[in-house]
Design goal:
Layout: H1 3-9, H2 11-24, H3 30-40, H4 47-58, H5 65-88, E1 92-93, E2 96-97, H6 99-103, H7 105-126, H8 129-152, H9 160-185, H10 190-217, H11 220-223, H12 229-232, H13 238-246, H14 249-261, H15 267-276, H16 279-297, H17 305-319
Antiparallel strand pairs: 1-2
């Protein structure tokens, strides 16, 4: 099932999610409204809330709370983007100026805090302690992932496992929560809940691996940010780790220096080393392995158009070019 068919299947639910997002973004503080609507309206794939609504439907849920949970997931994700862009000093996201570039770091951090706190207000309204437990743990794990990534920056000795630990915490954890919560709402069995959590985690890792490959293997226009942003920030992502592990002594020395120094001064040489070592193909293959694990996890739930849509989301995540 392709992404357009998936979006069509969930269209009514996602319209309700978008409407709720706009409603709950409202504040009597004008800057919160302005900045919040700017970042939410900036597009994005909305994959995390899509996973929540489709996951709940796949397990037979027909109540109202999946819409609220999907909006909560999107608010948490948006808060992390606002904070990420400040930490990374990013100037572009989704082809537009970042909120911090327009309003400054202080406003971006504080509106991110507002989105976090609003999401917790909305969690309380659901009145389900299991939901609170999963989301509270997820937000804490994401923060740990951010700190771990900060520790890895400018460190060319970062291993693939250390890199993947950051990915699992920083990116995949929210995908995991998004999928698991659908099963919780639907009253799925412990096995089904565990399977959906595994699906989300593997999907999230695959998604981030593709993102990191696109940072070096796509055009800036396609990905909506500057090519080599990760290199500029000194982030040792998997394409660079692969070069360090398999490259010639001169390629290894080049990439080590690039990670230690940051910046894009030698981006063309780094791209050439990435190409020569097959680093993009290696990263894509690792993403495909995670994707296969995500799809395998779905065997624990009954077949339906919604289960097929969950598998289709995985295929989209690893085949996308943006």
């Amino acid at each position: 099932m392709d992404i357009e068919a998936i979006r069509s299947l969930a269209a009514e639910d996602m319209r309700a999610v978008d409407e709720l997002i706009r409603k709950r973004l409202s504040s009597d503080v004008a800057l919160i409204n302005e900045l919040g609507h700017y970042i939410i309206a900036g597009g994005g794939k909305r994959l995390r809330p899509l996973v929540t609504v489709i996951g709940a439907r796949a397990l037979g849920y027909d109540g109202p709370w999946h819409v609220q949970l999907a909006a909560i997931i999107e608010f948490i994700h948006t808060a992390t983007l606002l904070h990420d862009d400040v930490v990374d000093a990013s100037e572009l996201r989704r082809g537009r100026e970042t909120a911090n570039a327009l309003w400054g770091n202080e406003a971006s951090v504080l509106v991110g805090d507002f989105l976090y706190s609003r999401s917790f207000e909305m969690m309380v309204e659901i009145n389900n302690m299991r939901v609170m437990e999963i989301l509270a743990h997820a937000t804490n794990t994401i923060a740990e992932g951010e700190v771990l990534q900060l520790l890895n920056c400018h460190d060319p000795d970062t291993t693939e496992e250390r890199y993947l630990e950051v990915v699992r915490r920083k990116t995949a954890k929210l995908f995991e929560a998004a999928a698991q919560l659908g099963a919780v709402l639907a009253g799925g069995s412990p096995e089904q809940e565990q399977a959906m959590a595994r699906y989300g985690l593997e999907l999230g890792v695959a998604f981030q691996l593709v993102d990191d490959a696109l940072d070096y293997g796509a055009s800036g226009e396609d990905i909506g940010k500057n090519v080599g942003d990760d290199l500029a920030e000194g982030k040792p992502t998997l394409p660079l780790i692969h070069v360090l592990r398999t490259g010639t002594p001169s390629q290894v020395a080049l990439v080590r220096e690039a990670i230690e120094q940051g910046g894009r001064e030698r981006i063309d040489e780094v791209l050439a080393a990435i190409e020569a070592t097959g680093a993009i193909a290696y990263t894509a293959q690792r993403a495909r392995e995670q994707a296969q694990a995500a799809i395998a996890a779905l065997e624990a739930i009954d077949d339906s158009p919604y289960r097929q849509a969950l598998a289709g989301i995985v295929e989209f995540a690893v085949s996308r070019t943006y």
